[in-house]
Amino acid sequence: MADAGSFIHVDTPAADAKAGAEAEGDTDSYVHVDTPASDAVQVKAEADTETEDQVIKNTKGPEIKLEDLFEGMDSDDEFPSSPVSPKRESFGSFPSSPSENGVSHKASDPELMRSFYQRLFPWRYLFQWLNHSPTPTNDFGHREFAFTLQNDAYLRYQSFPTSDLLRKDVLRLMPSRFEIGPVYSANPRDRKTLRNSTAFRPLAKELCFDIDLTDYDDIRTCCDKTTICIKCWQFITMAIKVVDAALRDDFGFKYIMWVYSGRRGAHAWVCDKKARAMDDQKRKAIAGYLEVVRGGEKSGKKVNIRRPLHPHISRSLDALKTHFQEDVLEVQDPWRSSEQAEKLLQLLPDAQLVESLRKKWDSSPGRSSVSKWADIDTVAKTGASQKLDSRALLDAKQDIVLEYTYPRLDIEVSKKLNHLLKSPFVVHPGTGRVCVPIDTRSLGDFDPLGVPTVQSLIKEIDAWQESEEDTEKHVQDWEKTSLKPYIEQFRSFVIALMRDEREVKVKQERDEDEIGSTDF
Amino acid sequence: MIRQDFNRIDSKRRNVVDHRKKQFADPSYKEAQYPHRLNFYATPPTADITLEQFEQWAIDRLRILAELEACSFRNKTPAETATHIKPLLDNSSSTQLFAQRQKDHYSHFILRLAFAATEDLRRRFSRVETMLFRLRLGADDMRERAAFVQSLNIDWEPVTDEERRELATELAAVSSFAYGGKKTLQAQEDESWCKVDWERVPDLVETRRVFLRAGKAYVPAREQQSMVITEFSARLERALELTARALPRLDEDDRLTPILNHLSKTFIVPDATFGGNNTAIDGAEITARNMDNLSQHFPMCAMNLHKSLKRDAHLKHFGRLQYTLFLKGIGLSLEECLVFWRQSFNRITDDTFNKEYRYGVRYSYGDVGGDSNRRGGGGSPYSCQKVMTMPPGPHGCPYGHFSMDNLAALLQSAGVNDRGVLQGVKEDKEHKKFHMACNRVFEHIHKNELKRAIDEGIMTEAQLETIVHPNEYFKRSYLLKNMGKMQQQQQQQQGGGGDVKMGE
Predict the structure, then answer these.
(1) What ranges do the domains of chain B cover?
(2) Which one of A39, A50, A78, A144 is the catalytic residue?
(3) Which of A20, A142, A268, B267 has the lowest tally of Cβ within 10 angstroms?
(4) Which distant-in-sequence residues (6+ apart) come within 8 Å of A375 by Cβ?
């Protein structure tokens, strides 16, 4: 087993490179972006050097300790652990500390990325997470991965029997990011060899949600486009709260992982077996159930919901009220100028009330949103309008609260079984931040700007090595960095998920032999 | 030679034990009973019918299904569809109740055979059959419906009184939706509830018409109809797939196969799709350069895209998709289309354009992409139906997605200032008849030309029926506005022996 493992190490890159180059060559037929022909060559060349590296390593055999050779799949260690790395460094496969060259490293610096994927990325847990079992199954093997290469070509329908091979391909191609798609009924690489088209169809994928701050551009005042700060991150915080509660309480899902998307949003992965097996219609139903804010820039009022409020809406409203007061009115102050306030006025019913509010606000420019919000009720009470429907006003105010706080989901992501979504722990090429899971128990403490970047992480490894060189315990690279809590969180999530799946299996099969040999 | 016969029980007397062989067993004739008008079509018919009946019954049913599909293409509301279809459906008042139900039963199964062959046909068939079923279920009186539902044996768990009291407020909030909050407390308490896995009622979940807790949906009694319908379509889809697998065995029958083939081919729908490439209008100069000029003939959806594009020098993904396909539909060639997009996206470099957008345009024309995309010519221009179901943005249908104020502003900018028309549009919008609004605007803009066209008999009424496709809008608009020119050219051509070419 271990022997075979080490053989694969040396053998496959060449074969892989060929397959990869081929795949690259015909990306044209199914990829969104056109690939110039030269890319195929370039990739191949890159692959070749990689192969040489491996070959050299092999010839310098004596230097590799026996136990390292046997460090196969059964080992508990994460692949890139420090005792091995000094040797690899001597082959020049990655520089010991890119940070020495100065801080100006861009996040997309291939060497930094390579170090990250080689030494820090939790391949093992990613595998277990998607595989739902310690031994490789089709859940992983037939899963689609898609790579966005450095030249922006998009490589779809990649699949790998084990996480080792996935890792190797990532290191070979060095994609700027990779995405996870559904499990198919056949191996995605074989899809063209299948006789009829129905034999290749998506079977299962986690139910995903995508919340992005760009969708909040018309209501956030602190930042826009790609920038974010802790103030507008609160929109994501409230969104997570609402969606998480609905998924758990209403739909009964248990395994929900929230992941920072690396720049300005968050993704949810609902991993329950039931959620994974849902067809498009059911996904669409959940997306519709959760969607309240509808319409584009020209739709006018974006929240139009029926009364009485559905239990889900009234629960969300309760949770969002304080956020509205604190995070929106006080911090964002969205209606300070008179043009901004006009937006608010358009959402209110009753022309007379609106007129007297407008007059009041025009006479005191710069009045804060908190006061303006309170004004609505005071003016209404003074009887500014004779035929004011207080019920309608209350409804409108509720709608406004929802429009300014309720999650704005990119529901296309959730609706389709075969939609791809960026993998957790990938480095965002623009910011260098790692897509780390968000702990919903301490949601309020999560600071997107405090998320470790690939540059800082590599530095941390080096710093650690200097201070605690000689510990006896085998310490993995990620444990030396601030990535540690995130990976631990991911690990416990994956282990709980796997245990749950296994219990179901055991119950079904009453066959403990197969599974009993593994340990967590 | 044949050696196995010693111990065989006479085939007629043998008990068919093995379920796998059951399907090969000779059908034993069984008098079917039809206690309800509705039928879940669980058991296939076994009595003999003549070939003429076979064909005639199938055609009769097909006509109704085609009508139903046409209604859905024209965006009719369920109520309108019901009134439209009603005269076509036999009424069960006559004494021939049995005969009708039998015909219903048989024709359904005949069409199953005809439409099981490909996935496309199956999907279409199950969609319209479900529509028919829903229509009938809605038309049935309460008693008959209840009896029918009872006979189905669908397992749903009743909600106990205790649980109902515990969840009283939540359930009340859900239940009074349909009654606009006017329902009395008493009536709410009387309502019976049942509890099912939410996955059984996705459509109710989507519109938040049920209460959800821990994966269970609490369904009020009157919504159980929707569950029955979901069940119907689920069972039908499953049965159709089984039928598809059994089909090859039917090939040997040379009497039925031609009829069935013929049936599935004639399932023709009113043309809501638009022929991809042969739509170019003779004599029109359709080039990137001329696009601003042509945009006056665009329907609001395309005009709005054009304006957004001019204003922002950019369109988002769905906008590009919709607009590119539309442009393809009006006859803009791929080369010209690329030029058009390149010129419109004037704030980016050539490199960015080639990298990020060029592919998408070529994909829409079927120039690149997988085999099926290339063979399909890159997909056809979006119909109104499709445009309306797009996520809102600058793309999609302005009548559906804009607020009235913004829509009015858009219309006015296109020169529609008539109060009556705007009022009409507003009413159509409130009734969710967006295509009516669009046609109303069309008629207003072209009212002079339309009058002339009909007076002079250039276009017949049939050519001027309701527009259900943005490209049809363009084509008709262009032809009407250029009527005079066209005629002239035609005469010129005739006179000059055809050597005068149009469009310079």
Answers:
(1) 30-150+232-265, 153-225, 291-396+446-495
(2) A144
(3) B267
(4) A357, A360, A361, A367
